[in-house]
Amino acid sequence: METTSEEHEKSIFDEFIESHPYPVHYVRFTAPDDSEEGQKKRKKQFLYYVSGYAARLIRAILDKSGFTETKEIDEALLIVGSALEDEKVSTLKVGQKTNHYMKTFSLGSKEGYHKLMENVTAHTGSRPNYYPESYLIPAELTELRENFETSDLWIAKPAGGARGQGIQVVTDIPKLRPGRRMIVQKYIKDPLLINGLKFDLRFYVAVPSLDPLRVYIFDNGLVRLATLPYKENLEHPEEVAAHLTNFSINRDKEGFIATDDVANDGKGNKWSHAPLWPFLESVGFSSDEIKRKIEDAVTQVILAAHSTFKEQKNHRNAFELFGFDVMIDENQNISIIEVNVTPALGTSSELDRFIKTPLVKDIFNISLIPKTPKLPKVVENLEKIMRDERKPENEEEKQPEPASTKPAKGGKNSKNSKGNKNAASTNDEEIENMEEKMKLREFVTVCEFELANQRHGGFRCIWPTKERWEEMGDLFEKKSENDEMLKKWIEFNDDEKKNFLEERYEDFKNHVSAE
């Protein structure tokens, strides 16, 4: 069930925005089985476009939320389905949104994830403890040969594979056909078991904004159990239904029990997360500690991928849902096995619908889809303002400090102040104009962050947080002024937040009124 701002103690922002309305109105998405508003027939006033294929669940939620499909991408408020070609993403209007960033396979493929983890290893000096020892062959074949005898079993998977296709448990280095690449990963031999069965977890992670970076994790997901007992088949790697937990591998095996009725959640070979946490406590694990480890690891992975995602023209046109696959071992260690783009959103069972319906609704809500692509110019120009700030390194000294930390006027110290008076005056005006833009941008940045948090539903923000900035800020290589602004915002006390909002709102309101 979605949590609204009225269901918890109101924040400074909640109180402020009630009396100072934000001029951009966002679609409030509802699900087919929602009570109250969700049961009312909403007027069809929005258009969506399907690129390739979109799950029926997505279409159902859009239909209930007042959307109609269009065949013209230029008319659409929201574009769903398969990723658009890069050139199409670059030409979207500011008010349009699509459900994929460019370059997401730099994380969402097995090879891409491996290379990211290699980058983290080079940056920190050690392999992340949540990433199993892995090798990309043939490029790292020599290193694999040197270390292959350290384990009896390895997992071999096609570098670009998905849905469990081509995965094997191997005892010898696999032979590759020309042109093929594989990830060979050390087998985790002491996995935690449920009823003697190996299992993994699917976590859903949303990235609704790149600049500033915002990351959310969903409060529910899947527990996927193997079909055959693990220990009895430890010496039989050919019995993949004991060693691999992929649904596509196990669903047709004898003994697989599909959990359809939510009343049977916690039985069979597919659960939601709800019965998992009590199970962990029952075997002496701290579920809170496991969650913290997973959230920390997820955050570090997204931070590592962020600089690649950011290599696109417009950061405000897209959002993304990732599926993180996680294992837990007997010593309470967690491993992120792989990361998936376009995680399956099929709803063949009641359990699937129970988990995925609020998931899809809530990611649309936190992604802030405007009700009209025609936005106030001060908001529409935000992307241009951000691009203006991305100056070449040799021009960095020309940029003023962020408006939140610098006095209102800075012309006296400008380089041109000693020369022509007109030049000095012009430079003063330019600096004041840049500072004004920064203030407007800072206000929009904070408002979007807080407005998304008001409609988070089952999602919870794991970046930015004060604690993770302190722990992981050095891994955040391409942070922007917007990221720095959110860092300040979450560190502000209530009085500082109130003063910030009141000061910035007046400038913002004047700009909107003048349009």
CATH class of the largest domain, named Alpha Beta
Mean pLDDT figure: 87
From the spread of the alpha carbons, the general shape counts as: globular
Alpha-beta classification:
alpha+beta
Rg (CA only): 25 Å
- Unreliable stretches (pLDDT < 50, length at least 5) are 1-6, 390-419
How many helices? 17
Tell me the name of the CATH homologous superfamily of the largest domain: ATP-grasp fold, B domain
The overall number of domains is 2
Task: Give the biggest sheet.
Answer: 8 strands, antiparallel
Helix content: 25-40%
Proportion of β residues?
15-25%
* CATH topology title of the largest domain: D-amino Acid Aminotransferase, Chain A, domain 1
Write down how many β-strands occur, each being a DSSP E stretch of 2 or more residues: 16
What's the CATH architecture name of the largest domain?
2-Layer Sandwich
Distance between the termini: 39 Å
Keywords: ATP-binding, Ligase, Nucleotide-binding
InterPro entries: TTL/TTLL_fam
Organism: Tritrichomonas foetus
Protein name: Tubulin-tyrosine ligase family protein
Structure in words:
- With 515 residues, the protein is of the alpha+beta class.
- It has 2 domains: 239 residues, ATP-grasp fold, B domain (D-amino Acid Aminotransferase, Chain A, domain 1, 2-Layer Sandwich); 138 residues, no CATH class.
- Helix content is 37%, strand content 16%.
- The protein has 17 helices and 16 strands.
- Strands 9, 10, 11, 12, 13, 14, 15 and 16 form an 8-stranded antiparallel β-sheet that branches. Strands 2-1-3-4 form a 4-stranded parallel β-sheet, covered by helices on one side. It has a 4-stranded antiparallel β-sheet with strand order 5-8-6-7, with helices on both faces.
- Strand 10 and strand 11 form a beta hairpin.
- The longest helix has 34 residues.
- The two termini are 39 Å apart.
